[in-house]
Prior knowledge:
Blueprint: E1 8-11, H1 13-30, H2 32-51, E2 57-58, E3 70-73, E4 79-86, E5 91-99, H3 104-113
Parallel strand pairs: 1-5
Antiparallel strand pairs: 2-3, 3-4, 4-5
Amino acid sequence: MTPQRPIRPQFTRAASAAMIEQWDYYKEQQGIELANRWRDAVADTVKSLLVFTERGARCRLPNKRLRRLRWIPVPHFPYRVFYLFDPDSRALLVVHLLHNKRDIADLLMEAVSEMDEDVSDPMKGEPGK
């Protein structure tokens, strides 16, 4: 039996920008310690998905294109990690990091529309590269 390839996490521009913006906000508002706890909590959350990709709940949004997304809360922070997993390429795509009180559907559609061309869109059934 051939061992499976390791899962490769990738981040969209929207997810990366949200991570940095929130880190900057926490640093400015309450200091580097909180900012680093935020960074570590997000990293630990994503790492947990590498072990069990279906851990997150499925999104129950009206837009059919977003229904394949899953989400998982970031412990100790009012945020969710929204992601996709492509089992063929074993790519975990972090689509966005969003505050629980934001307009999730609109922001996710915007993130999906702006995905980098070098990151395939598993929602369209195209395997990652």
